[in-house]
Amino acid sequence: MTSLRTFFNELEARLGRVMLPVEPDAPSPERLISSHAAYLDLARSAAVAIYNENNCRSLEDSVYHYPTLDALGRLKQQRHESGELDVTAADLLESLGHVANTLLIQKHEGSIALTPVSEQQAGLAGQSRSRRRGR
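RE: above sequence
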């Protein structure tokens, strides 16, 4: 699992320190993003939204793929509706979502045991035969 702090460190590494400078010793999600960020309010809002949507209680709690994307999408919609979303801010949120997909879906897929389709179909065929016999 990826902690919120680790996730934002990875975001910083991939998007650059100018766009998303992370404070390594931050005590809260509001302070996780340095005051030197290009879009300080938006970046801090994203950190808080991801923290809340993943039900985190600390910066060391895990973040997950879908709640993280939900938080970013909701934030983008709120900013758009309030007229606070310009092209560059929208691009930053899209970039955050793209990196979230890259980082978090790999973690999620690694924890899922996939069953080949042929085995799934064989299992379903066996279930329907046993249902017919029970009638």
